[in-house]
Amino acid sequence: MGSGVPPLTIGLLLFMGLVFLLLFQKKYAERNIPSYPAFFTTLGILGTFLGISYGLWFFDPSNVEKSFPALLSGLKTAFWASLLGISFALIF
Fold first, then answer.
1. Within a domain: residue 72?
2. Is residue 21 part of a domain?
3. TM spans, by residue (predicted)?
4. CA nearest 81: which of 3, 6, 2?
5. How many angstroms separate the Cα of 30 from the Cα of each of 25, 42, 76, 82?
6. Cβ contact 69:1 at 8 Å
7. pLDDT, tens digit (0-9, with 9 covering 90-100), for 16-34
8. Other residues' Cβ atoms within 10 Å of the Cβ of residue 50
9. Of 31, 40, 56, 90, whose CB is crowded by the most CB atoms within 10 A?
10. CA-CA distance, 6 to 21, in Å (whole number)?
11. Cβ pair 20, 39 in contact under 8 A
12. What is residue 29's predicted lDDT score, i.e. its pLDDT?
């Protein structure tokens, strides 16, 4: 694995960004506004668990040195998903 951003992270961030833009466009539907922060927080937590699961899926305890980059890649995804979910929740 390279040191760049993992494809899972890019896909997850693009998905969350698209959802954010769609909901931001419809922000003025008064009945929906209170549920947006909880939705983004939940989406961030889901992304966190997906990232950690991805990292652990490819982790081999018998060969830690070679499997550590995959674990770190999953943790990158988890971190960015959490950060984006919390940020979007705070914006709304």
1. yes
2. no
3. 6-24, 36-59, 71-91
4. 6
5. 12, 21, 35, 26
6. yes
7. 888 888 877 766 566 666 7
8. 17
9. 40
10. 23
11. no
12. 61
Closest CA to 4 of 79, 55, 69: 69
State which residues form the domain around 76.
35-92
Mean pLDDT across the chain? 82
Confidence of residue 45 (pLDDT cuts 50, 70, 90): very high
CA distance 41 to 48: 10
Q: Is residue 57 part of a domain?
A: yes
Report CA 66 to chain centroid distance, whole Å: 24
Residue 1 clears pLDDT 60, i.e. is over it:
no
Do residues 81 and 15 lie in contact, with contact meaning Cβ atoms separated by under 8 Å?
no
* DSSP of 8-69: HHHHHHHHHHHHHHHHHHTTT-TTTGGGHHHHHHHHHHHHHHHHHHHHHHT--GGGHHHHHH
Copy the structure tokens of residue 80. 């960015």
Q: Which residue type sits at 43?
A: L
Q: How far apart are CA 68 and CA 48, in angstroms?
A: 18
